[in-house]
Amino acid sequence: MNPFLITLLVGILALGVGISAGYFYNRNQVEKKRQEEQARAQSIIQEATDRTSKMELEARGKALKIVQEAERDINQRRSDLNREVERLDRRRSELDGRVERLEQREQTQNKRQSNIDRRANEVDKIHAQQMEKLQQIAEMNKDDARKILLDEVEKEARGDMARIIRQIETEAREEGEKRARKLIADAIQRVASEHVAEVTSAVVTLPNEEMKGRIVGRNGRNIRAFEQAAGVDVIVDDTPESVTISCFDSVRREIARRALTRLTVDGRIHPAHIEKVIEDETKAVEKAIVDAGEQAAFDAGVTGLHPEVLRMMGRLKFRTSYGQNQLAHAVEVAKLAGILAAELGANMEWAKQGGFLHDIGKAMDHNQEGTHAQLGAEFCKRYGVHSHVVNAIAAHHHEVEQETIEAIIAESADAISGARPGARREDLEAYIKRIRTLEDMATSFTGVSQAFAIQAGREVRIIVRPEEIDDLASTRLARDIAKKIEETMQYPGQIKVTVIRETRAVDYAK
Questions:
Q1: How are the residues of the chain apportioned to helix, strand and coil, as percentages rounded to the nearest 5?
Q2: Which of 41, 114, 137, 185 has the most beta carbons within 10 angstroms of its beta carbon?
Q3: Are 254 and 209 in contact (CB under 8 A)?
Q4: pLDDT tens, residue by residue, 6-17
């Protein structure tokens, strides 16, 4: 056999065996690798399964918790909803009740409105009928009557206006510049207690000295009867042909003066006749008081006051202050206040009433407790005087706050009336005492060198030491002295305080 062929066959056989062996070897390797991959996949699947189970358990727990919370929230909302439903049901019931009541009220109102409309129609019809009758009676229509009435009212108003203007101009000319522009708000009248003897006694002139014995009577019975019936003190002294009647009540003093004068003229002086004469004079004085009050109100141009207020004002006819008759003073203050109010655009009626009534309390302050301003304000308020006028009365001595311009005007008019020259008087002793008091009061302040009261005590000029008091301190010193004068002294009108500070420089040329 050919060796080449054998070698070839052997090679082919070896090649086939090698191929088979390689095939089986690769097959085994693939199978082994597949098994390893299956095992790994199985492991991954198992791990994924375990993780999925765990996540499923956690998800179920969270879901259960969420469901429970949702159920609680649903239950809470259901409860709130039930309560809201109940509240809405109650409100619906209340609203239904209100609607029913409103409907009933509307029906009632409709009935009333119908009645009112019917009556209004009847009234209009009656008014039209009466207007037709009036026009027939007057033989003119409504427009003609209105025109005539307006013409008459305008004519009357123009006449009153012209009269008032003439009156104001006349009073302004009489009073001069003092009553035209000034508004004095800080000068007020003071009641002087040291002048009691000057205003509480009256002298009765006798026809002869024998009359003194008849006035006294046997064992003094006549004078005792007179003093008891009249409520006064009768002073019989050595003054020739005169006796003195003393009483703090000016009205009782006037009654006693009239009665004693009548008794001395009549000559019949005994207790029974004394009582009758005093009773008659009491009635006469009461009538004179009423007449004086009404006449004063007429002179002052004040209207609409209660008769009791006018009667009380009439008592001021017998009252004086610093020698000034209080009723005449009230009339003057009312006129001054009216002019000031007209110039300042204030209410003239309130200003005049405040000026007229400001001192009405002086007619009663001897019998009651309180200042005359307070008593007068309470009295006028009780009898229906306007509240602005009552404030002007109460505030004219700054005991209460001034609420209106009319109160300031009444106070200013009071100060002008009391401070004008000749309005009031003082005796010499009181005048000297007031002058000395002013000077001593001024020199009592530190830094004052000299003080001089001039112009009858209406001004104090004070010279200060320039090295102790500067310009600013001078202003303060003037204010302090003025304040002390207001607090410690009683005086009519106002007192001007002037502080003078002078600096002198001296040198010598050598």
A1: 70, 5, 20
A2: 185
A3: no
A4: 787 777 888 877
